[in-house]
Design brief:
209 residues; alpha+beta; 7 helices; 2 domains
């Protein structure tokens, strides 16, 4: 019983550490979710060991944890047009389940080092994103505006004022509105400034990349 209580505490600490990082950055699966996933995976793993001691297949329950946690992770993935978000959170959920299973099998060193590695990765990744924001890269801008070629030209000139070169432009008409796809090279900061200026135009209804 004491060993099981220790596993519960470790699951709460490690799952909670990863959950706090997710919750701090306002992601779908936060502190409570990660704690529950880690605890649940740990308990299922302990039960699978009991099953093995009773003459059953010890990997039967544990194997289903890997599959089952995928449904939880899939719930955090969202798609908005061409933009997909939540993949990192889904991968985090999957990793937390693996950590819970490691705790269940008494592999505390593996569980702890993996948790630290994930936290360091998240920190490094965010620092890298800040650096990437300063670099120019090819990207697309999608916007919806009034069905007027004069407006499209006005939008292009507004973008080029930021010293951004438009490489490709596609315009389609849907629901009596123009859907414009612009391919250009710009930094993250330039995109933020362009977004602010274009959305202030009454002829532009929405914009994303």
């Amino acid at each position: 019983m004491q060993e099981f209580l220790i596993k519960i505490v470790i699951s709460l600490v490690l799952g909670g550490a990863l959950g706090m990082e997710r919750q701090y950055h306002d992601k779908p699966a936060g502190y409570a979710t990660n704690c529950l996933i880690c605890l649940g995976a740990m308990l299922f793993t302990v039960l699978s060991e009991y099953m093995g001691n009773a003459g059953g297949d010890p990997g039967r329950i544990a194997a289903q944890v890997v599959t089952g946690v995928g449904f939880i992770g899939a719930g955090s993935i969202l798609r908005d047009g061409n933009k997909i978000s939540g993949l990192t959170t889904a991968a985090n959920v999957w990793a937390v389940a693996a950590i819970g299973m490691a705790i269940g099998y008494n592999q505390l060193f593996l569980a702890t080092t993996t948790t630290v590695a994930i936290l360091l990765l998240q920190l490094f990744m965010r620092q890298t994103i800040h650096v990437m924001e300063l670099l120019k890269r090819y990207d697309s801008i999608f916007l919806v505006c009034d069905p007027s070629w004069d407006i499209v030209e006005k939008i292009s000139k507004q973008i080029e004022k930021q010293h951004v070169t438009i490489l490709k432009q596609e315009v389609t008409k849907q629901d009596n509105k123009f859907h414009v796809n612009l391919v250009a090279t710009f930094t993250g900061r330039e995109f933020q400034k362009i977004t602010k200026e274009l959305l202030e135009m009454p002829e532009v209804y929405s914009l994303y990349k």
